[in-house]
């Protein structure tokens, strides 16, 4: 039977562009340029490698995001994924992490899966909580933050590198994994891949298709609220410490650190 791999990919505001919040302190995802979260390219890469070493496999990429989030899906399709699912609904604006995990879990269940692959974190929210929440919602094991991952005999196996040790982890499928930016360079889409992606199927689902009440998602259903957001102050000019070779500079630096109670 075909190994069904689902990859969660997020469409995020381009970090090199002008990013902003809307009036109700929600990230502006409509009027800014966006792209496939760079950390999710690693997830797509690992899914494609697992699929490549299986007898028969299908890779589906799933996103929850605004209309332009199809750009992220097309990029993943051009890398080699087979098909895509886009969850889009006006009532999703303001959805927080628990809401996102509910929406993605329903979309993944509807698609059918043996293995869900996520990135280690998104490059905008950067909470890194979605994979664990997703596993809980789906009622399957989670093996997170892997820098190496493989699938054989109905088991997913991976290595998680910590500061002092590396763990070998294993779970029976179906399962959720997340992979780090150490898992291997993501491939660039080839010209052939880009052309082929234009013809690959992208299914669009809304909250009704997923049988989710609008009150369970969006700002209304959010467990968290952003009360204030302030712009980071501009960097101030640094202080230059000069030393004429008499060790005065070192004394000044020590005094600077002592004044601020660093030493
Ligand atoms: C239109 C829209 C409006 C939103 N408004 C808000 C808001 O007002 N307040 C708020 O707190 N959150 C909001 N969110 C949700 C938020 O952006 C995150 O998706 C969610 O909170 C998860 O947190 P994170 O990005 O830190 O994910 P992490 O936990 O850091 O992500 C880990 C991994 O989960 C997967 N993943 C995460 N998000 C998605 C996604 N959307 N689609 C597919 N895969 C995903 C990726 O594989 C990612 O690498 C909104 C999302 C959308 C699409």
Automatic annotation (TrEMBL):
<keyword id="KW-0249">Electron transport</keyword>
<dbReference type="InterPro" id="IPR014730">
    <property type="entry name" value="ETF_a/b_N"/>
</dbReference>
<dbReference type="GO" id="GO:0005829">
    <property type="term" value="C:cytosol"/>
</dbReference>
<dbReference type="InterPro" id="IPR012255">
    <property type="entry name" value="ETF_b"/>
</dbReference>
<comment type="similarity">
    <text>Belongs to the ETF beta-subunit/FixA family.</text>
</comment>
<dbReference type="GO" id="GO:0009055">
    <property type="term" value="F:electron transfer activity"/>
</dbReference>
<comment type="subunit">
    <text>Heterodimer of an alpha and a beta subunit.</text>
</comment>
<dbReference type="Pfam" id="PF01012">
    <property type="entry name" value="ETF"/>
</dbReference>
<feature type="domain" description="Electron transfer flavoprotein alpha/beta-subunit N-terminal">
    <location>
        <begin position="24"/>
        <end position="214"/>
    </location>
</feature>
<protein>
    <recommendedName>
        <fullName>Electron transfer flavoprotein subunit beta</fullName>
    </recommendedName>
</protein>
<comment type="function">
    <text>The electron transfer flavoprotein serves as a specific electron acceptor for other dehydrogenases. It transfers the electrons to the main respiratory chain via ETF-ubiquinone oxidoreductase (ETF dehydrogenase).</text>
</comment>
<dbReference type="InterPro" id="IPR033948">
    <property type="entry name" value="ETF_beta_N"/>
</dbReference>
<keyword id="KW-0813">Transport</keyword>
<dbReference type="InterPro" id="IPR014729">
    <property type="entry name" value="Rossmann-like_a/b/a_fold"/>
</dbReference>
């Amino acid at each position: 039977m075909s190994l069904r791999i689902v990859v969660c990919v997020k469409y995020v505001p381009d970090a090199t562009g002008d990013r902003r919040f809307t009036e109700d302190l929600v990230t502006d995802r409509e009027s800014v340029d966006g792209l496939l979260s760079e950390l999710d390219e690693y997830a797509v890469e690992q899914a494609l490698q697992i699929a490549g070493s299986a007898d028969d496999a299908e890779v589906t990429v799933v996103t929850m995001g605004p209309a332009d989030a199809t750009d992220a899906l097309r990029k993943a399709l051009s890398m080699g994924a087979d098909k895509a699912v886009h969850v889009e609904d006006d009532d999703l604006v303001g959805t927080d992490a628990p809401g996102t995990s509910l929406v993605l879990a329903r979309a993944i269940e509807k698609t059918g899966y043996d293995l869900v692959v996520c990135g280690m974190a998104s490059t905008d929210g950067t909470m890194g909580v979605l994979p664990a929440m997703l596993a809980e919602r789906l009622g399957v094991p989670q093996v997170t933050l892997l820098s190496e991952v493989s699938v054989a005999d109905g088991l997913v196996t991976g290595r998680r590198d910590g500061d002092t040790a590396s763990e070998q982890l294993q779970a029976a499928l179906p399962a959720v994994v997340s992979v780090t930016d150490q898992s291997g360079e993501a491939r660039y889409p080839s010209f052939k891949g880009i052309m082929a992606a234009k013809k690959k199927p992208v299914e669009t689902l809304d909250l009704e298709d997923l049988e989710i009440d609008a009150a369970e998602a969006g700002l209304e259903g959010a467990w968290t609220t952003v009360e204030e957001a302030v712009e980071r102050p501009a960097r101030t000019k640094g202080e230059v410490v000069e030393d004429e070779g008499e060790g005065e500079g070192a004394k000044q630096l020590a005094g600077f650190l002592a004044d601020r109670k660093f030493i």
